[in-house]
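Why run this: before we spend reagent on co-expression, it is cheaper to look at a predicted model of the complex and decide which construct boundaries make sense. The entries below are exactly what would go into the expression plan.
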Amino acid sequence: MAAVLPVGSDLSGAMNRFLKTILEKDIVDAVLMPMKVPSGDSFAWIIMSDSSIVDDAEAMAPVMPVQGARALRSLTRKGEGSIRVLALMRPCEIRAAIELSKLGQVKTENLILAAYDCPGAVPMDSFVSDPSSGEDLFRKMLAGEDVSAGEVKPSCTSCVEFSMTDADLHFGHFGLGGTEVLLIPGSPKGMEILEALELPADRETSIWDEAVRKRREKQVASRDAAFEETGENIRGVQGMLNVFADCISCRNCRAACPICYCRLCHFESETAKQDPNSRLDSAVTRGGISLPADRMLFHTGRMTHMSLSCVSCGQCSDACPADIPVAQVFSFVADRTQKAFEYSAGRNDGDPLPLRSFMKSELSGIHEMVSDAEPGGHAHE
Amino acid sequence: MNSIVMKQDASTAIRELLAYLLSSSRVDAVLTMRQVPETGSCDLGLITDPSGMVEAEPFLPVMTANAGQALSSISMSGKRIAAVLKPCELRGFTERVKREQGSFDNLLTISSICGGVFPLEKVISGDLEKLVPRYIEKTARAEAPRGLRETCKACEEFVPMNADISVSVTEHGSLMHLHSDRAEEYTEGFEGERIEARADQSHIDRMMKSRSAAKGKLFQSLEKSSGLDGLVDLFGKCVGCHGCSRVCPICYCQHCDFESINFDYNQPYFQESLEARGALRLPPDTILFQLGRLTHMSFSCVGCGMCSDVCPVSIPVAGIFKKTGERTAGLFDYVPGRDSEEPIPVMVFKEEELGDIG
Amino acid sequence: MISDKHDDFTPRITSFLCKWCSYTGADLAGTNRLQYPTSIIPIQVMCSSRVDPVFLIKAFLSGSDGVLMGGCHPGDCHYETGNYHTRRRFAILKEIFDSLGLESDRLKLSWISASEGPKFAQVSNEYTEQIRKMGKNPTRKSVFL
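The model came back. Tokens follow.
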């Protein structure tokens, strides 16, 4: 059941008014939402306590320049304060925030996480080069019109978690023809907001449910196709080498990733630094090496460090100056590592992080998998 | 100056020299750009086997990483290395040596009068095949090829400043100039006619003319964004990925201050900021980072352009840093990378200077 | 972005003062009951060279109307050469501000010794007056900084 927010002419505008109202009525102390930068070609996260500033902000931005969970991390990393903040973000941002809270990097006690039905995002580079086309495109995406898949962020075209995440409050608008938004409480915190606004959650959601279900079906199919393609591309060492051939080791993927919260990445630390002499020795062994070295170690290492929490937001691909499909590869791997523990990153269901917990009897097949493998061959599935 | 006449094109000649240095055991390894013929993908190779030299493209107009940065720790291995560096890479390396991040002791540096490099996006999109032949043609005539990095178009430091060997390519042919005893010693026995010659000054002058004009234009376009509003215009869309500092040959800190705990804030900070302004950007300090980095390294900026290339939101970082860097270095008549003996301005001082500042 | 130019506002001048000279000079001004404005917000540092220019930029971007850096006179540094380094860094910072068209007059470096209580009061008064004329720092209101 949900409460109803009438829309009028403009979906985003209606959500803005809602956020303004909860600020004016002191239901929250601040709101975190995107605002277009003065140069007009991007958006920034702005936390605002002054309700008049909400007018200049945009509830749903066409792009995701900074993963929202990173913004929340910067706000609460040093601990919870007394101000109550409502953050309106894309579902993948909320999911990343939930993962970060499990990792102790976001404190959610005084946060109200709000999400909306996400139609996907416009890739950063195309938006920066032509903001007005990007905004048109996003308007079409919001209205549910068909847009060519190549124009949308690749991760978004295969996203199956575009709605109904474990947010405290969810703005559902798919299938409602742009005339109203459903306010779906996902937690007591979300319920409190609706109560404070005296909005009864008494609306049936079946039309919206059906629209979400249909969209998910389509998205699942496109995700499966993407996984299949990626799986083919990265098969074996040579496959990985090909996909990452243009990597220049700038580590933008790591920096843009909401989950990679380490201040000093292991792969940039003294520990990971190879002694120059042994580096030369390995060059001699191979006849030559590529510099900067250890690219494969970095990418596969990062997979072991964060793929269990990967929310497939696609920020890594967006930030890659070499156009490597980092996100597709990481999503593909994450799907498998998370399935191994029946874990789904971003769910607030009390499941502990797989790498922070264990069961005494589990993964019984793992030894056999190794010992049965033939030398140089593949392990059994 | 003692010079070697190159019969073939410069790339082939240097490839042969590098192979000669390896096979005669004068060096243990060679650092050069390479290109995989089948895929066209480029990287910096540290090559030890002379047969690996077939993939070497020493003068490929591409910079996947500033080689000065890549060479940094390798140069301290004690092994002898010959490195082909673009002038700005050599300058970047020189700045690193001043910061004890590299050593010239066992290094033979080879550089060339540089026509500039193409932005990474052009390399990735596979345009190189078309671009390179035109590039070679144009640069041989001292003309500016189209589509180069902005800071390359505007680079006036295209003549190597302190290389052991420098290569100049003019319409009259290619020459290898030997600038140091080490160069003489390493090239001993390498085939090729020795003549007394310098790089063609009129060629350099013609290049300089177009570079200076481009620099004027670049700086002028940046002047449009001035003042606080201009600052927000320039850096407002920065996503704080710090990619610019990671690929910077000067930014050598393993743990950048701006990523340290010094820039984490507790709740009272956010509360006070909200009370004062009504709104605050998150994560905070995105613009502080840019200004702060300018104070930390701009006087050593060699204008290589890596920062702009990796910026996910196309901020003209390199142009801004080059423009401001020329002014901060200019305060001390400092030219980054000119001479490894020249101290970094912030490490030294004169008792009598800057009288009007305090 | 709002630029308020009032003559009647009390500027906020974040002041980094070295323990050995400028801060002691400020103390002396106080004990001598010399008048200096409340606009000066002192932060004691062990040496002016301890101050990374980034601190000054942070103060500037956070809305300080002026940023004052006080150190020992050249040659008098308690640690012998700290203030010479400060002088270079400060020159670099000013140059960066000028190159970007930012108001570099909102940054000031002043040498004030431990015995110069009157100079501290004078510098504080004059600088406050100068900043008052410049108006509030527009960074106070910009949400994108």
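The longest helix of chain A spans residues 206-233. Confidence is low (pLDDT under 50) at residues 370-381 of chain A. Bring this page to Monday's planning discussion.
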